[in-house]
Amino acid sequence: MGDGPAPARGGLHLRELQEGVRALPKDYAIATAQGRRAKAWRNKRMAWDEFSAWMREPRRTPETAAEYAAMAKAERDAAKDGPCYVAGYLEGGRRRQGSVARRSMVVLDADSSDDGLWGDYLMLVGAQALMYPTHSSTAASPKHRLVVPLAREVSADEYVPLALKLAETLGAERFDATTYQPSRLMYAPSRSMDAPYELMECGGDPLDPDEWLALYPDWRDASCWPLPGCGARSRADKAPDPRGKAGTVGAFCRAHSVEEAIEGFLADVYEPCGEGRWTYTGGSSYGGAVAYEGLWLYSNHATDPAGGQLCNAYDLVRIHRFGELDAEAKPDTPVASLPSSKAMREWAAGLEGVSLELARAAADSAHDDFLAEPLEADDSWKKDLEKDPRTGAVLSSAGNIGLVLARDPGLAGKLRRDAESDAVWVVAERLPWREVPKGRALWTDGDDANLRIYLETRYGIVNKAKVDDAVSHFADAAPYDPLGEYLDALPGWDGVPRVDRLLVDLMGAEDTAYVRAVTRKTLCAAVRRAREPGCKFDHMLILEGAQGLGKSTLFSKLAGEWFTDALSLEDVRLPKVAAEKLQGRWIVEVAELDGMAKASIERLKSFLSTAEDNYRAAFKHRARGYRRRCIVVGTVNNLDGYLRDATGNRRFWPVRVTARLDHRRLDAAAVAQVWAEAAALEAAGEALYLEGDVERAAQEAQRHAMETDPREGLVLAYLDTPVPVGFEGYTAEERDEFWSLRADFGAGGDGAEAAAEPREAVSVMEIWHECLRQPATKPTRNDSYQIAAILKKAGWEPTGKTKKLKAYGYVKTYERGENAKPEF
């Protein structure tokens, strides 16, 4: 047992109380729940008298003490499960690592209690407290819960060293190794039906946390904490080596030590601060994360999401990279079933080192399978393998690798290249190391690793660069066009028209010639791009409608595995990024077009006009051209307008949809018939542009999709207000006087001059000063653009000329167009 501050029957110095430095707390933050599996916790405040009264009445459970002792652990856990608490405040009412905002009491579980614990507390500490037996306590093996209220609330970072120091003073060996965790739940008193219960209470003042924390040279320095009592060293020694675990966990731990994982993936989360120690950057203490043999890390930082747990390298990275995904998971969800585990497995499997470890493990476990491949009818080709004349070992030469890829029954003829997307495909039922779903799949980095393991296992061939070159060579020799094969394999069109009315029937679009035309031309463009990559099509069908109607789902069902919605407006700014996302796709959706800036619209229009993308792909040495084989579509939830250029919207084909997509009407057979009809229409020469009345209807749809400026009505009223003859020669003062005599635009007023003519020309400056009543400064470039957009939308056309006005000097003018006749 250690030495604490001299007991003061409450822990506060008399001088502090007399001088009023700190008032005693009137109540304490307590979070409560009805059981250990509760997701929602209730934050409240309780006076000490109220809390101690709660502790005086234990909940009685129906089993006897003897029956409880005979239960299996799971049964005992269920029997004692009931009302519980955390003596503090939980952020968001959720109990998880890092959610404790502050603690109001220290609560310690003494699983190795004895009759002297309470006496030691009274003698060595003496602050206000209570202690009660836990559900498992017996005369032969007493277990108690010590509750010590604090004179002030402490942070989670302060709580750990405070609780450790208190336990050290009383004998750390008495206490559970995990009892110091700020988020640890404690059960309210409960006992078996015949078990005795005695509550021990000590009056006085609450414990002064500052006095106890001052016992450290610096409480923030975790190297000063009495950590051996936490048992991390002992637990690390007893834990099985994580490198021996199956699957991705073991592979990751073999590929990365804890130190390497921190340096490679969590450098912004932990800072090194000495041999084998790190500081969690999100906390206020330091040096509290300790590594053991490169296999484990135990973090004593209370606010660390990985704190209070013995973590291997895999779990440490999982918690920090993907732990937020577990926010809605049930408390008793197995770790392997957590959303973070699924995300971690998928991410980790793509790392080169992990992929190689998985491949090696697969090769080890599948070695017999490799050897058990069906016997070849003719294996005479193996005599042509080049061998080392001294040892007879097969050489790792390009010729040998090529011969194996060409003749080995597990590999021969299974690699093909999609010339348009440059991707390598596996076209076979299986590879020696895995089954191939649907008889075809993309060749992955994992396949590269497995192939190298296979060649080494079966033939002793080891040469990564030559193996990679051979894969590329043999794939190039066997062109593959999965999209073209899909179209070629379509059934004949059954003659039932579906294409024109697809949006009408499935999504409640208005049945107009325009809607039918843009639906037809979009689908025909998809077929033509598949048949003739890079053919001209610079239009974009945009589905407008409320969220949740299934706009994206429609495109996904039509394009199947060749659909993506991963392209964003931000990607369009980066041509290579955008182009890479098009490869291997047929329909590409740009979602969330709401609120496009003018620059975004211009970039998008330029992007739509591109028929071939030229760039150097990742891991390639030279740039090449990729002809576009896809169409680009859009979706938008904002029904208040999203286009901003009144004259440059011809590429956009907006269609308003109102009904939720019925998935049952678009099964695989229906999709096949839609494409069969579209293919027939395309083969018949369907034009991919609009003309005549349909083009004019498109312009009207584009106008309705324009973003609405709240000043539009005011400007239109101003434009329709007649002005006196000779108004162009008015000075600024005369113009102000003219407009001031009108109650509002479009009406006369007392003393108003005779208004003899409608306005046929106007400038941005006039609208800025006279309509919008702005100060005598020039409008900004953005202001001018917005006013010009209102004019264009209203049918006013720029003349490209300048005119001199007495009030404003030389200005650029707009003239009233055919669609902008005055309404008076």
From TrEMBL:
Q: Protein name, please? A: Virulence-associated protein E-like domain-containing protein
InterPro entries to which the protein is assigned, alphabetical: P-loop_NTPase (IPR027417), VapE-like_dom (IPR007936)
What lineage does the source organism belong to? Bacteria, Bacillati, Actinomycetota, Coriobacteriia, Eggerthellales
Q: Which PANTHER family match?
A: SLR0554 PROTEIN
Pfam families (UniProt xref): VapE-like_dom (PF05272)
Species, as recorded: Gordonibacter urolithinfaciens
Q: Which SUPFAM superfamilies match?
A: P-loop containing nucleoside triphosphate hydrolases
| Source organism superkingdom | Bacteria
Which residues belong to any copy of the Virulence-associated protein E-like domain? 490-706
